[in-house]
């Protein structure tokens, strides 16, 4: 890409990756078909569909050439297993554990290893399922789970997780829908993606209260039925494009988004100088000055999301002053710092805080993407830099953004995919 062109025009936001992934897994809870709209066409979604198909789930695309509308039928599950090859490419594969165990009485899921942004253990998923009576052993790198001795379903219980975990809450929520009796999930994640999953589960016949709060109460039912659902818009994709226009200037209108899920992010963008007009499902954003520096710390929803940290760091690199960014969710989510510094940024790290001193201009270079959000931050920095920037290993980007380069081209950016 060659930096310097302001962004101008309109774009549509895709469905949320982190809502679509658990929602695809929820199909395992029912023998009836689940029809989904607004499923983003991403590498992670393709990987999840492949995993579900390997288990015996049938996947249909009712409209030819349209991958956003699909029907999943899990009437037959032959192999309730997630092999290492799948889990190692996508940690969200762990989301099949709760539903498989709840409906089939057994599951074998490879234990995820560490990942680029942190150790990311799944001990809370396992602890919660054990509290629901499951017998779980770790053998040869696999989580081997089954209903406890004499059980013919999981058993509801009161579960308080040690920390707030998004996929942990989702796994336990899905498992609890088919458990006997009442499950109370305390310290539950309040991310909108958890709420979207819960909304689908309710359409499938689940009995859930407290959706959107940190206390979910689930009255188990004996079976769930088919449903139709549209995945919520991706708040992180929305925030990423807003950061891009804040960094390079211009005016864009973002359609099919949910500004109400982005309060913390929009507040920081406003502080950076971005002017915004919102409706219920669109944002028009204008930037005509150098960004002001914004300091923040990442935290669980509704606070500032870790998934927007890297993109805001790119914005801060060219701000008119210094800022500090503290990452509290993942212990190793600063790998973009070295790469941003290769573009001329002035960032140093002290513990879990990055100190960013804004510079007048970044200058283009070859940089390497290390994870999904780091890739997005390098694209933003490249669009703001003088001269040409090449971002390598963009397969990370394709895991979570639906054709980002095409959307940017439509907005007038000078960017292309080399391979
Ligand atoms: N944790 C544990 N034990 C557990 C579970 C979590 O120690 O059993 C720790 C993690 O190591 C981490 C913290 O708790 O330090 C929070 O992790 P969480 O479980 O919430 O993360 P996750 O569910 O694995 C989801 C998103 C991530 C997003 C985080 C935080 C999905 C598929 N992934 O991951 O998305 O960063 O929540 O909001 O929903 C991304 O999209 O780029 C991405 C990484």
What is the mean predicted local confidence, pLDDT? Answer: 97
Bound small-molecule species: uridine-diphosphate-2(N-acetylglucosaminyl) butyric acid
- Give the spatial strand order of the biggest sheet: 1-14-16-15
Helix proportion: 25-40%
Rg result: 22 Å
Oligomeric state of the chains? Answer: single chain
DSSP E strands, number: 22
Find the structural class using helix and strand composition: alpha/beta
Strand content: 15-25%
Distance between the termini: 13 Å
Biggest sheet descriptor: 4 strands, mixed
Overall body shape: globular
Task: Tell me the number of helical segments per DSSP (H or I, 4 or more residues long).
Answer: 14
List low-confidence stretches. none
Description:
By secondary structure, this protein is an alpha/beta fold. Helices cover 32% and strands 22% of the residues. Strands 1-14-16-15 form a 4-stranded mixed sheet. Strands 3-4-2-13 form a 4-stranded mixed sheet, covered by helices on one side. Strands 5-6-8-7 form a 4-stranded mixed sheet. α10 links the parallel β17 (296-297) and β18. The protein is globular and about 70 Å long. 49% of the residues are buried.
């Amino acid at each position: 890409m060659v930096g310097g062109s302001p962004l101008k025009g309109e774009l549509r936001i895709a469905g949320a990756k982190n809502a679509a992934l658990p929602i695809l897994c929820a199909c395992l809870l029912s023998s009836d078909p689940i029809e989904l709209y607004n499923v983003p066409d991403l590498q992670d979604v393709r990987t999840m569909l492949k995993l579900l198909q390997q288990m015996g789930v049938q996947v249909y695309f009712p409209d030819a050439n349209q991958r956003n509308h699909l029907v999943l039928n899990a009437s037959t599950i032959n192999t309730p297993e997630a092999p290492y090859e799948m889990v190692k490419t996508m940690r969200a594969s762990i989301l099949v554990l709760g539903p498989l165990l709840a409906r089939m009485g057994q599951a074998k899921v490879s234990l995820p290893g560490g990942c680029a942004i942190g150790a990311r253990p799944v001990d809370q998923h396992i602890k919660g399922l054990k509290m629901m009576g499951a017998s779980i052993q770790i053998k040869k790198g696999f989580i081997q789970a089954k209903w406890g001795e004499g059980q013919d379903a999981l058993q509801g219980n009161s579960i308080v997780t040690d920390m707030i975990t998004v996929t942990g809450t989702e796994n336990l929520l899905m498992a609890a829908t088919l458990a006997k009796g009442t499950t109370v999930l305390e310290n539950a994640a309040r991310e909108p993606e958890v709420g979207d999953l819960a909304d689908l589960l309710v359409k499938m016949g689940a009995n859930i209260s407290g959706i959107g709060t940190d206390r979910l109460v689930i009255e188990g039912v004996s079976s769930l039925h088919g449903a139709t659902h549209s995945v919520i818009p991706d708040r992180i994709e929305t925030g990423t494009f807003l950061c891009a226009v804040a960094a390079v200037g211009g005016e864009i209108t973002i359609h099919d988004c949910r500004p109400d899920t982005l309060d913390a992010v929009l507040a920081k963008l406003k502080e950076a100088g971005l002017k915004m007009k919102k409706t219920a499902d669109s944002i028009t954003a204008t930037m005509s000055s150098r960004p002001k520096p914004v300091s923040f710390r990442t935290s669980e929803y509704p606070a500032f999301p870790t998934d927007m940290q890297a993109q805001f760091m790119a914005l801060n690199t060219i701000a008119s002053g210094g800022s500090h960014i503290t990452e509290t969710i993942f212990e190793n989510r600063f790998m973009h710092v070295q790469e941003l510094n290769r573009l001329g940024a002035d960032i140093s790290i002290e513990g879990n805080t990055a100190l960013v001193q804004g510079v007048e201009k970044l200058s283009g270079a070859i940089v390497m993407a290390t994870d999904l959000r780091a890739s997005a931050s390098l694209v933003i920095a490249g669009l703001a830099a003088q001269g040409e920037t090449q971002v390598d290993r963009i397969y990370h980007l394709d895991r979570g953004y639906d054709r980002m380069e095409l959307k940017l081209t439509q907005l007038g950016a000078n960017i292309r995919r080399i391979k």
